[in-house]
Amino acid sequence: MNVAGQEGRNLLLRIAAALVMAPLAIAIAYVGGWLWTALVTVAAIGLYVEWLAVIGVHRPRLVLLGVLILLVVGWVDADHPTATHVSVLVALGVAGAAVFSSDRRAWAVIGIGYALAASVGSSAVRLDPVWGFPALMFVLLIVWVTDIGGYFAGRLIGGPKLWPRISPKKTWAGAIGGFAASLGVAGGFVAFDFGKALPMLLLAAILSVVSQLGDLFESAVKRRFGVKDSSHIIPGHGGLMDRLDGFVAAIVMAAIFGFLHGGADGVGRGLMVW
């Protein structure tokens, strides 16, 4: 199969996978509660396992420790999370990774922190019973349109590469196209009375940039260890790290922003109303 044919097949696989995963994620996000927490926990465990595979650390005790910590964090998030409980668990996870990884210790610590941040951030944004779902949808849509807009703008316009040493296919046109698409999402939310124009546009801009930085970060880690895909679990997308890299960065930033404005119990409201 020639290169054009292979790229076309991969695009079809990406679209097909997205048509299955996106509605499922939205439905579970809408239900919220333990179902959303369960999905987040499973995804975080997958991210952690893939991270260890990417950096080449194969230690059963380290994997088991990380899985247990992530399960407990998920249970705390589903019950009634507090900053103290989550902080203690995150500290235990990081300390355990440092103790049980004799090689590439710093990378193992970053990995458990990465997975924990994804888990805590995703649960915190959805926690608010009124604003949690729209806040989560805002982040998801920003990440999705940034990715889709960037892909098509990059393919149609081309031009100078964004950071060829880290991600040879990404272009400045793609980065700007994804950024512009995110502003469209903000405009749609404002049109339906979810937030005020200037704050929502600013938030969309920040999350879009952070999402793209998360994508570049994951590419840099894979390139550092000579890995093309984190796994092959998702047809056309690679692994969970490949698919969720931008989301992890954006949801963590959104959770921090929401926490600063709305407190631990009002992250979603703090994100959408300011």
Question: What keywords describe this structure?
Answer:
274 residues, mainly alpha, two-stranded antiparallel ribbon
How much of the sequence is in beta strands?
under 5%
Order of helical and strand elements: HHHHHHEEHHHH
Overall shape: globular
Number of strands: 2
Count structural domains.
2
Low-confidence segments, given as residue ranges, are: none
Total helical elements: 10
Task: Summarize the biggest pleated sheet.
Answer: 2 strands, antiparallel
**How far do the termini sit from each other?**
53 Å
Structural class based on helices, strands and sheet pairing = mainly alpha
Spatial strand arrangement across the major sheet: 1-2
Helix fraction bin: over 70%
Mean pLDDT value: 87
Radius of gyration (Å): 18 Å
Structure notes:
The model has no long low-confidence stretch (mean pLDDT 87). Helices cover 79% and strands 3% of the residues. The protein has a two-stranded antiparallel sheet. It folds into two domains: 1-31 and 128-274, no CATH class; 34-116, no CATH class. The protein has 274 residues and is mainly alpha-helical. Helix 1 packs antiparallel against helix 2 and helix 3 (60-79) packs antiparallel against helix 4.
